[in-house]
Amino acid sequence: MDHEAKDFIRQRIEHDLAQGVLPAGVVTRFPPEPNGYLHIGHAKSICLNFGVAQEYGGSTFLRFDDTNPSKESDEFVQSIQADVAWLGFTWSTLTHASDYFEELYKFATDLINDGKAYVDSSSAQEIREQRGTLTEPGQNSPFRDRSVAENLDLFERMRAGEFADGEHVLRAKIDMSSPNINMRDPVLYRIRHVHHQRTGDKWCIYPMYDFTHCISDALEGITHSLCTLEFADHRPLYDWVLDNSNVNFHPPQIEFSRLGLEYTVMSKRLLHRLVEEKLVDGWDDPRMPTIAGLRRRGVTPAAIRDFCARVGVTKVDNRVEMNLLEFCIRKDLEDSARRGMGVLKPLKVTLTNWTGGDEILPGKWHGKDESLGERDMPFSGELYIEQDDFAIEPPKKWKRLSPGEMVRLRYGYIIRCDEHVCDDAGEVVELKCTYFPDSRSGSDTSGLKPKGVVHWVSAAHAVPVEIRSYNRLFRVPDPSATSFLEDINPDSLEILQGFVEPAIVAHEDTHFQFERQGYFCKDSKLPGVTIMEVSPRDGLQNEDAL
Ligand code: ATP
Ligand code: MG
Ligand code: MG
């Protein structure tokens, strides 16, 4: 990558490295709150934070921002670690904001001693009113001028558990007339009598994000604190806390755009609702934009990393097209996935002149990569082809089967459709065909030139599988945050009873391209039983199938 192509964050890091202001190298952190599963938006932040540390020989902390115990759980803590590792990144140190509770308390006490923080006994509603609006300045709290001694005493008793939730808060004493509402005496600590998944019942006061985050960054020596754009207005507060605390390091906060993706939602609040209201089958439902869902769907870590690299890092929020993610998924599997035969909607074919027993045909696992080898494909007089590969009245330029016409069975023989059998409802249920014994692929002397090639499996040998074909979870590219449930796509899951050739089931690989169909993977939860469609078929460029 040349210099011009580098994003503004990498340019900044290179500048800092050149200035010699980073004696310990680049240090970044990824700071998730353990209140949900990670989603592809988090992947962007992970790829950025871990990516720059890797590129410039630095290190990255994985820090759990666990200051809001009522919404956090160990299940989320575990899943986040698993997801970061699965994406291919290694943290230098695992920390928790709660590791610093004692130090944070000390820094808060120092602010009180310096006359820069006070205990406010106003209610949450009163504080909200005091802080004013964008057009109206704030009003001082009646408790703003409490003495240092009284503040220290009250703050100690808050910690000791003498007060109920909401009775008091600790606020920074900054400027109630600041045009930036974040600077109008923000709350630093609140009382919450709730059990914390790590510190248990040791604390009943918890520090707020704006106080915790910057101090944690400083204590860890984070050289570039990268966060999303909505925190730009918090930057003066980030700097104020560090300028007024006795920390020996002051990281710069640098904001970048949040990732949005079409046809899905990314906020954890909305994802929680999808799970809780059972609109999806858990956090790892393959339709979810979560890392766990994408993994179960069969998306590879390399595809997600490529996607994040292509999206890039800018200062402009936008919703990225789903097509880009799908492109990255196919691109990654294109070279690596073995090709095999899978029939999604089976139509029985009987070869009326077949007299032999079973035959074994060789088939390459990949048309362009000999090193992936071959597999044996059993062939017999009863086959399944795709229902869509037959038409009684074919459209113009039809390259598949129709009455009286011929096709080649991929790697096999040429067949001609002599008769189609319909059920009472008029649905075609079976084709009776003639095969041409001298037309076998590789030793074809028949001189016949059928227009098309179709995929097939041998009925007696094929393995029945449930195939889950996923569509977008939402019908619209930009589901509304307020009425997003109305935008849910009712047809996001289609379950098919299909067949795959036995070599696919027997092979240790999880991902395959079904010839002419797209990419599929064995379900990690129900291997051998369920096969997932990795990316939608439309848009698949599958030249080597023909
Ligand atoms: P939510 O609003 O869904 O709760 P969050 O930002 O509060 O998301 P965190 O767990 O705090 O979730 O996120 C951890 C890190 O991931 C933060 O640094 C945050 O900026 C980043 N992040 C979260 N969502 C996105 C996104 N859509 N695009 C880029 N970065 C993101
Ligand atoms: Mg959040
Ligand atoms: Mg957050």
Automatic annotation (TrEMBL):
GO molecular function: ATP binding; glutamine-tRNA ligase activity
Catalytic activity: tRNA(Gln) + L-glutamine + ATP = L-glutaminyl-tRNA(Gln) + AMP + diphosphate
Presence of the UniProt keyword ATP-binding in the record: yes
Main EC class the enzyme belongs to: ligase
Sequence segments annotated as region (Disordered): 122-143
Coiled-coil annotated spans: none
Family membership noted in the UniProt record: Belongs to the class-I aminoacyl-tRNA synthetase family.
Protein name in the entry: glutamine--tRNA ligase
Classification lineage: Eukaryota, Sar, Alveolata, Dinophyceae, Suessiales
Gene: glnS
